[in-house]
Amino acid sequence: MKKILLVDDDQNLCNLLCSYLVSCNFYVESVNNIRNALAYIRKDCPDLVISDIMMHDLNGYDFIKLLKLDNLYIHVPVIFLTAKGMTSDRIKGYNLGCHAYLTKPFDPKELLAIICNIFNQIHLLQKNTLVNNYKYPADSKLLNVFNLTRREKNVLTLVLQGYMNKEIAMSLHLSQRNIENYVSRLLNKTNTRNRIELTRLFLGYL
Do 78 and 145 belong to one domain? Predict the structure, then answer.
């Protein structure tokens, strides 16, 4: 379940948005200022942040600047929700690295569509990075010994990266049951009992 942090000093809006996003199967926490948001992120980094811009003390622009200065949190996508609807305000937000900018009042369904789109884009990027960066050595004796099919190699690649069956199924556009069958085949072909043994076997060679 994806974790979303909502940062806004409008408690009514926070309550409404939290209820809506929870009903859409997200885990949501809310804070009412930037300092509390930074403290929360250091304790439990969310998958996405939705932040107002105009708040007391530090504002949303300050917030995203601080996030992007820290390599631990530079990857966290930020959506701005704000009453500041001028083009110059939006340009400033995008230049600072926000992923989307919604002007109040807004339709919660549009916010949901933006959130889902961001997570889909991140998932595709991660998938492409895995495929492009993870390569087997051409002289890998193990791959030849076990006579793995192309699909089994693809599944093995993701298993070695620590992905669970559900995530592998999403990446390869297969059912979770099919992935379970492929993992079982890998275990049988390699005479290993579990994922740990399988990983140890191949990481010793790859």
Answer: no
Same domain? 120 vs 142: no
Q: Which of 75, 109, 128 is the last residue of a domain?
A: 128
**CATH number of 189's domain:** 1.10.10.10
Question: For 58-110, what is each residue's pLDDT tens digit?
Answer: 888 889 988 888 878 888 899 998 887 678 888 888 888 899 999 888 899 99
- Identify the DSSP state of 57: S
pLDDT score, position 137: 42
State the residue range of the domain holding 171: 134-203
Q: What are phi and psi of 26, to 5 degrees?
A: -110, 150
Cα–Cα distance, 60 to 66 (Å, whole number): 10
Which regions of 32-134 does DSSP assign to beta strands (E)?
48-52, 78-82, 100-103
Residue 62 sits in the same domain as residue 107: yes
- Please check whether residues 49 and 143 belong to one and the same domain: no
Instruction: Spell out the alpha helix ranges (H) of 147-175.
Output: 150-160, 165-172
> What pLDDT digit, counting tens, does each position of 16-55 carry?
999 999 999 999 999 999 999 999 998 888 999 999 988 8
Q: Which residues of 196-205 are buried (b: 16+ CB within 10 A; e: fewer)?
A: eebbebbeee
Q: Are residues 60 and 88 in the same domain?
A: yes
Q: Are 29 and 8 in contact (CB under 8 A)?
A: no
Q: What is the pLDDT of residue 19?
A: 93
Please tell me the pTM assigned to this model: 0.62
